Hints:
about 120 residues; four-stranded antiparallel beta sheet; Immunoglobulin-like; alpha+beta; four-stranded mixed beta sheet; globular; binds copper (II) ion
Amino acid sequence: MTTKPTILTVAVLALLATGCSSSDQQTSAEGDTQQGSGPVISIQEFVYDEPESVTPGAEVTVTNEDSAAHTVTADDGAFDVTVDGDATATFTAPSKPGEYTYVCDFHPDMTGTLVVQ
Ligand SMILES: [Cu+2]
């Protein structure tokens, strides 16, 4: 019974060595850079904290620090995204410049304005 564990150990070590030699690190580094540079709407205690403006067609990240789910729903339907509690979501800003008022579907008192320019 001593040979089988030895063979398994060698196999696992070989797999680990293969995984370490891949180029995964480059891919993840690029992804982190893109995420960090985009506009963010953060939601905390049922209040939107929005950027001054975003560029047309920008990917907007929505971070929800509440335990309750919220939505970012444009009054004219230009965008609509649901963000679960303690979660993050993204949506694409309208391509047409303007001021887009939005509301939370679940909490009508939550309102904001997305300025696209
Ligand atoms: Cu809400």
